[in-house]
Amino acid sequence: MNDRIIPLIDVRQSVPAIPREKAAAVVQPGAGLLDQRGRRVRDLRISITDRCNFRCIYCMPKTVFGRDYPFLPRAELLSFEEIERVARLFAAHGVEKIRLTGGEPLLRHQVERLVEMLAAIPNVELTLTTNGSLLTKRAAGLRAAGLKRVTVSLDALDDETFRKMNDVDFPVAQVLEGIATAAAAGLAPVKLNMVVKRGVNDHAILPMVRYFHGSGHILRFIEYMDVGSSNGWCMDEVLPSAEVVRLISEEFPLETINANYAGEVAGRWRFRDGAGEIGVISSVTQAFCSSCTRIRLSTEGKLYTCLFAQGGHDLRGLLRDGHGDADLAAAIGDIWRQRDDRYSEIRKAATVANLAEEPGKKIEMSYIGG
Ligand code: SAM
Ligand code: SF4
Ligand code: SF4
Question: Does residue 45 have its Cβ closer than 6 Å to ligand 3?
Answer without folding.
Answer: no
